Task: structure prediction
Amino acid sequence: MSGDGKKQNVTSEDVVKAYRMFLGRDPENTEVVQSRVESGIDIHALGRLFATSHEFLDRYKMHSPAMTGREPRLHIQESASEEEMSDLFRHIHSVWSELGKSRPHWSVLSVDEFDKESLETSDIDSFYKTGGYATDVLFETLKRNDIETSSLQSCLEIGCGLGRVTGHLAKRFDRVSACDISQPHLEAARHESGSNRQDNIEYWQLESVEEIGSRGSFDLIYSIIVLQHNPPPVILEMIRLMCESLTPGGVAFFQVPTYIDGYRFELHDYLEGLGDFIEMHCVHQSSVFKQCEKSDCSVLEVLDDSHTGYKERERSNTFVVQRG
Result:
């Protein structure tokens, strides 16, 4: 692989070498090679893509603990007034509505191949296929925790984005209610479902945090790579509302970072320095446990996940929570 310090799009030879170097095998077919070339990513992005893939990590057992246990406690203000919560929500709404217009696919999966003004059909197909993998992880996790999946009929997805996972959930549940804060994202999701003739999905725009608890009860609530883009007070309020929106015996499956080295959240400072970029937030893991307990929910399992990348002194967790 060549590299002179300048951004240079990968060639077919680069992609084949990456497969052999990282995965110890040849590509499945010429189409996957061509897809990577046409994505326009450079050699560094290609390396990151392979180095963080599940196949590479499984092959070389690269799952070392992200934390040593000696990390200091983070300073995180986790509560806010009603007025402050409204200010936080308006800011999040503004940022994500704009991203839905300008960088819709990349805003959901932030990899270079989805950060193009115009995506090829193969790029879009690849994007939506990742939702199938996410759904498989969900159901394997439920089975591992002795959840009778056949009894789960209704599903609420919080932060559905472009419907990447939604369509796959609709194949498993009788009824799916999917919400997002961004209207442009929702419009694209509706179009995707319409193209696939899926009529058991209700899409709706989340216009306040409280709305999460206004749509009735659900057997399963799903939210992945969503909570992390909200400030801590919003994250914990969303977790509370998710827990309280579960049917008796219902399950919530959600992900949130619980440690980021050097992270600090002070509400006043945050409101003073609002920007128009994608933010990454976290809450104390213990605060998630306490919030679930207050809402009559038991934490069945906590998984370390790779949704924020494999970084030292940074931890992201997927929680499996069941209502009593």
